[in-house]
Design brief:
78 residues, globular, binds zinc ion
Length: 78
């Protein structure tokens, strides 16, 4: 298992997620983001707005994903 924080995944807090694969990690981060969105957490809403802009540029989005995947791969297993 590898551990990453919400912040490391482009979020806004220090909550940690544990997953075996990068895809699972992104899934956990998304689910948490959705919960924060429903709670109207200001810090998360802000980063989500920024992410929305990023999503309009598929190339930038891909680059972002690749960078995060490399970060994930570089983290030692727990
Ligand atoms: Zn968070």
């Amino acid at each position: 298992m590898k551990t990453m924080t919400c912040k490391q995944l482009g979020g806004a807090c220090d909550k940690t997620f544990q997953a075996e694969t990068f895809n699972d990690m992104v899934g956990l981060s998304k689910r948490h983001g959705m919960e924060m969105f429903l709670q109207e957490d200001a810090a998360h809403l802000k980063v989500m707005n920024e992410a929305k802009e990023l999503m309009q540029k598929p190339e930038e989005m891909l680059k972002w994903f690749k960078t995060k995947e490399e970060e994930f791969n570089a983290i030692p297993n727990d």
